[in-house]
Amino acid sequence: MHSISNTNTQNSQNCTQHSKIKIISWNARNVLDKKRDLEAIFSHELNDIDILMVQETRLKNSQTFSMKGYKAIRKDNDYYIGLRGLLILVKEHIPYEICLEDIGTEELEIQIITIRLPIGPVYIVNLYASHSNININQFTKLYQFLNNKHYIIAGDHNAHDTIWSQALPNHRGNQLKSKFEEHNIVILNDGTPTRVNLPNERKTSPDISLCSESLANLITWEVTKDPIRSDHYPILMELAIPFYSSISSTRKWVTKNANWDGYSNYIHQQMTEHPVQVDISNVEQQYDKLIATIHQSANLNIPPVKTRRTTWSKSTPWWNDECKRSLEARRNALRKYNDTGLLEDYRLYAEADENYKALTTQSGRDSWREYCSNMSTRDAQSTIIWHMIRKYGANKAKTGNHFLDPIQNPEICQAVLDKISHTHENIPPCPQPMMIRPFEAVTLRDLEASIQTANKSSAPGDDGIDYRMIEHLPVSAKALIVQIFNICLQHSRPMEQW
Question: Where does the Endonuclease/exonuclease/phosphatase domain lie (predicted)?
Fold first, then answer.
């Protein structure tokens, strides 16, 4: 390990060194409903978490989810829409790649990313196994893919065995135990319950954490004390491998030294081997796959930029001492219930949980009202206020749009402006409908023309893909980009990443 660290130091002299990677796995049971709680915990307690793996996100395609300082990689369940789904949040300064291996099913959801460490790539596997009958061969397919790799698997397996749980073994638990032995998979659980069970129920640990033998002696595992309003506790794992964080610059590759033929051919080959059909229901996923393919090709054919870390803040202006006291009261109630298991103590815990939710919700509203009251009509001239109107004005669950278009909804937007502006000041009107031109489909020729006239030296966006990389894409990839553009324009639904 020492020699590996020294080698990495020579290649990362301008970067920040970290002694370990902190990973959390958590079944959120609706992550959007608990976002405020998650932000508070991350801001004030678990502020050094590098990777968060979430199961049962219950996010719909029309809903957005983001956390400041983190990149969000989603895998919504298109079959059980709004019921299941996976999410991985990766800290901004940690480079990662999305694994495109198609392993999971609707019942066994699997999401994989890789992070590069001094020992080589480490596969981070986020997993949710439903209560439905799942063929054990589906798990075997995952284990065979991970054979001879460094990996961490974590998530809600809905499996029980006395090796990792206090619950009685079930059929899936017996099957998985045999598979773990067959594939030399190390179980990290120590028997601590991972779920808040009802009174008179046996304590269970359906959330299982696993790793390769190569990482077994480098990982610590523990169950955190706060379920964050879920009925599953977050699992904290610390991987004791030093690594260097990257810079916040969006430029990731030195394109002037690129192997453009290899870059273009690799992408074309991947698209030929894995043809896609894009529509409004899967446009986000297909866009992510395209970006991941471009990143893979860039890593193979373009030298990387040496980078430096930027510190990100995750402020929660609504958090106050009253919220902190309410959180502590909820935790004390849960601690007492775990000690006694009595129905009355469970009722008191549920009551404290509801009180905390109501208090933080009201605190968030008060903070928002204060923010609005401090605005003036000068702010209405900027893009900030229109962004806030679009963000908070649309009922995403009903409209299916990420944003509320002020041109299409002038009455709603004007009402919001009236609310947040001082009544004695002149309020600028919403744009008139005649200012917008009819939708016109983008063509491949339009894209090529835009690329040719673009400033090739301008900085790329968050995905690190600059104009030269777009210019050298194969025609098949450019055609897919055009198709994605037109779907977004037709449905007035921009990519969440945009």
Answer: 122-235
Q: What is the pLDDT of residues 400-441, one digit of tens each?
A: 444 555 666 677 777 776 766 655 556 566 555 444 445 678
CA distance 60 to 53: 18
317, two tokens: 């202006």
Q: Are residues 70 and 159 in the same domain?
A: yes
Does residue 291 sit in the same domain as residue 345?
no
User: Whole-angstrom Cα distance, residue 24 to residue 229?
Assistant: 16
Report DSSP letters for 342-381, one per residue. Answer: -HHHHHHHHHHHHHHHHHHHHHHHHHHHHHHHT--GGGGG
Mean pLDDT of the residues in the chain: 83
pLDDT digits (tens, 9 = 90+) for 184-193: 999 999 999 9
Beta strand 70-75 pairing with 86-91:
antiparallel
Q: Domain check: are 230 and 142 in the same one?
A: yes
Domain count along the chain:
3
Residues in the chain: 498
The alpha-carbon radius of gyration of the chain (Å, integer) is 24
The whole domain housing 336 covers 321-431
Residue 5 makes CB contacts below 8 A (sequence gap 6+) with 118, 242
Paired tokens of 14: 């301008």
Residues 202 and 181 in one domain: yes
E-strand ranges in 226-284 read 235-239, 243-244
pLDDT of residue 496: 65
pTM: 0.66
**Phi, psi of 112, rounded to the nearest 5 degrees:** -130, 135
Question: Which uninterrupted H or E stretch holds 150?
Answer: strand 150-156
Q: How far apart are CA 153 and CA 237, in angstroms?
A: 11
Mean pLDDT computed over 27-46: 87
Check: CB of residue 298 under 8 Å from CB of residue 252: yes
Question: What pLDDT is stored for residue 352 in this prediction?
Answer: 95
